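Thread: adenosine-5'-diphosphate complex, take 2
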Amino acid sequence: NPALRLNDLRIRYDERTENTPNGVSFDVAPGEVVLLLGPSGCGKSTLALALNGLVPHALAATLSGSVTVNGIRTTDAPVSRLSQEVAMVFQDPDAQIVTGTVFDEVCFGPENLLLPVAEIVERAERALRAVGLWDRRNDNPDILSGGGKQRLAIASALAMDTSILVLDEPTANLDPAGIDDVYAVVRDIAAAGAHTVVLIEHNLDAAIDLVDRVVVLDRSGALAFDGPTREVLAG
Ligand code: ADP
Ligand code: ADP
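Output below.
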């Protein structure tokens, strides 16, 4: 079974806009690392939100076709259920921070799952070590660099222990040092093979060497290319 299946997904915010995404179908196999590319405004972020059910509930968009995550149709399950299958990292490092310390921040998601304290602490330590922030655990997240904040957002996603990780332009708001910092972590996650990863970017060069496959949307939100990374590099 695929980890993700999109079947003719179309989302339209209102009558004045086109569908974005516009009839997109593709599967992602468990453990696959996929780069989703496309120009700004083509629907990448909207597609990302659809992967954990946030579009129909939070944005009142019209959605047709279907999205299935680990066999669950996103329109049939509450966001709380989908959050156990798909973890997300967004563009803005500051918008994702909700608590007072780096450690508390990573505990926040697992706490909302009402897990036993020992498991929350164990997950938080594992996630912070994975992104190189264990030594910063008592710091206020506000004093981290932009790259550090995004690594914290990635740790928070890892602490959810989902099989699927979606990163929506995680370096869009970072300086070159921050971009390198975040991609070092993404590279480790991709190489470890424990997650199905969808990495969204508008720039191919940033991520091409750490993904198995590339999916491209065109300006109209339709699927323009879907193939292994080596075909992209060859062509
Ligand atoms: P990105 O292109 O980096 O994914 P956003 O998702 O924030 O950035 O925005 C993409 C486009 O969607 C922008 O052109 C923005 O103006 C538009 N947009 C975002 N939110 C809204 C909204 N609430 N209403 C109308 N347009 C919006
Ligand atoms: P991308 O991530 O590829 O930049 P988005 O998914 O952010 O694209 O946006 C796709 C389209 O939907 C754009 O035309 C954008 O203006 C529109 N859009 C995005 N968010 C909203 C929103 N909240 N309300 C209305 N339109 C939106």
